[in-house]
Design a protein that fits this description.
- By secondary structure, the protein is mainly beta.
- It has one domain: Elongation Factor Tu (Ef-tu), domain 3, CATH 2.40.30.30.
- 8% of the residues lie in helices and 44% in strands.
- The N and C termini lie far apart (31 Å).
Length: 156
């Protein structure tokens, strides 16, 4: 296991259907994608909050061995993505919550940096933007490359 330190940051709002995405994705993309995860046999999907937790890390993180993969799922008309889910435990203010690192690819919202991960889980009480959290997961399921803004790293 490895524990990754991160900070909760604001996302685009598509996963929760907020802001400019309220019309395009009523209820959010997570609500629209749940049927695919249920069919794949992912446990506790229906307990997930209809949104993601966006976490900024100090390293670029790539899932190389997902717990679940949903290949080429058309979750909305013309929107086809592959989804990787990697089981994790989210630590926040002394409490642990089961969840998954959630990675759509190729993402229809390709604006995230590789040092930002999205998490899916039940709603976590008191979680706010700017909160420090830890994400514990299988270290062998991830590949890491330092972010250019990590201490000691210089951009090329």
């Amino acid at each position: 296991m490895i524990k990754l330190d991160g900070i909760v940051v604001r996302g685009l709002g598509a996963a929760s259907g907020q802001g400019k995405y309220a019309v395009s994705y009523p209820g959010g993309t997570i609500a629209m994608q749940k049927k695919g995860f249920v069919a794949l046999g992912v446990p506790d999907v229906l307990k997930w909050h209809n949104g993601t937790i966006n976490v900024s890390l100090r390293s670029n993180v790539y899932i190389v061995r997902p717990t679940f993969r949903l290949d080429e799922f058309e979750w909305s008309l013309g929107e086809v993505e592959t989804f990787d889910l990697l089981r994790c435990v989210i630590e926040h203010k002394g409490w642990n919550y089961d969840g998954y690192i959630y990675r759509p690819h190729p993402s229809v919202h390709a604006v995230h940096k590789a040092d930002l991960v999205e998490l899916v889980a039940e709603k976590i009480p008191g979680l706010s933007y700017g909160d420090a959290i830890k994400v514990a997961t299988d270290k062998n399921a991830l590949s890491f490359l330092p972010s250019p803004d990590s201490p000691g790293m210089q951009p090329l």
